[in-house]
């Protein structure tokens, strides 16, 4: 199995959560937009431009960064209606969610639980729902790109928070991975609730 390049641990549900590294550094934030709380805003931490120690000449405690208030920059907005993601707005992308994340109807891997999309690099990717939600490059090798692990309560085995692993093949497209992962988890929950 390929080792993840990036591991992000979630503080709650994928659409209302802070995504943090194992060291506790916030990287992404997804939150329900006010006042209607139907849309989801996704933002990424903006790194500080100037290191506080260099700006003031006073040594800083390495724990201060974790305790300071993070500044976030807009990444995307997912419009939701009736517990479904209906539109993705991200940079120059403004598209209906079901047009961007299309059901995979091709070949052996075809399933109602798989969705295909074209990444920013022009290649095709497939999200597969299951015990863990997996993103692979749509190539013969099914190159792993990302995997979302649901939280475990510890009834059997160890309790673990939800986490999103991004492998080397996806490190340059982390924003779109986070956005499409949230859409897939909304879809998974909607399918579960309808069953």
From TrEMBL:
Residues 65-188 form the DUF6593 domain. InterPro entries: DUF6593 (IPR046528). Pfam families: DUF6593. It comes from the Eukaryota. This is DUF6593 domain-containing protein. It comes from Hebeloma cylindrosporum.
């Amino acid at each position: 199995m390929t080792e993840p390049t990036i591991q992000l641990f979630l503080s709650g549900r994928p659409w209302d959560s802070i995504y943090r590294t194992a060291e506790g550094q916030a990287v992404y934030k997804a939150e329900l937009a006010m006042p209607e709380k139907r849309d989801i805003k996704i933002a990424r931490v903006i790194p500080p431009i100037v290191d506080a120690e260099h700006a003031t000449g006073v040594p800083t405690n390495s724990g201060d960064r974790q305790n300071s208030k993070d500044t976030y920059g807009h990444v995307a907005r997912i419009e939701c209606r009736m517990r479904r993601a209906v539109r993705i707005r991200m940079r120059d992308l403004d598209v209906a969610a079901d047009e961007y994340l299309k059901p995979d109807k091709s070949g052996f891997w075809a399933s109602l639980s798989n969705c295909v999309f074209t990444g920013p690099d022009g290649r095709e990717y497939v999200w597969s729902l299951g015990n863990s939600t997996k993103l692979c490059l749509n190539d013969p090798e099914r190159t792993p790109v990302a995997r979302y692990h649901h939280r475990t309560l510890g009834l059997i085995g160890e309790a673990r928070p939800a986490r999103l692993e991004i492998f080397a093949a996806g490190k340059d497209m982390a924003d779109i991975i986070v956005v499409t992962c949230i859409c897939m988890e909304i879809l998974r929950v909607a399918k579960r609730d309808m069953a």
